Amino acid sequence: MSERTAPRVAVTGTPGTGKSTATALIADEYDVIHLNERIRSDDDLWTERDAERDTLVADLDAVADALGDWTGVLDSHLAHHFDADRVVVLRCHPATVEERLLDRGESPSTATENAESEALDVILSEAVSTHGIERVYEIDTTDRDPGTVADAIRAAIDGEREPSAGTVDFTDYL
Ligand SMILES: Nc1ncnc2c1ncn2[C@@H]1O[C@H](COP(=O)(O)OP(=O)(O)OP(=O)(O)O)[C@@H](O)[C@H]1O
Fold first, then answer.
1. What is the CATH number of domain 8-165?
2. Is the CB of 114 under 6 A from ligand 1?
């Protein structure tokens, strides 16, 4: 842990794993930064629009500068690309990711692309290779309501949970 009094906790995971929903539930206890909203509202933080996926391509260097010496909880599928003391990776069975994204109005191709990425542990692997296994906390949100997921995030922030990368296996989806 750094010498800062408040830790920096990145909450990342494939779109649809429920990061924004769960971190909104702890926003009265911690400083929660919903990074995707911030990127969308500041033209200096993204370089181009990915027309096919209807998403913005973030400028990670510009975002790092804008974040500065942040503390609290950073919510985004990009959160693990920035300095952090702990990284919480929300996981969700790919079939459920697909359902949640379709229900949210995403296109079938976007829903499938994200489900496959979740099955392949893409974000977990990036988080572990960037931050080291001892800083990564994996939380399976499949069949867990947002309040239970928020409790698990709180436990990771407060040091009441052990690091736990590699505990989830969704390869049955592939
Ligand atoms: N624990 C949960 N159980 C069931 N549905 C959930 C849960 N968490 C979130 N959802 C639903 O799944 C959808 C995606 O949730 P949310 O937007 O929080 O995901 P996200 O990981 O923040 O996605 P993104 O990275 O695209 O912002 C929403 O429609 C939300 O209502």
1. 3.40.50.300
2. no
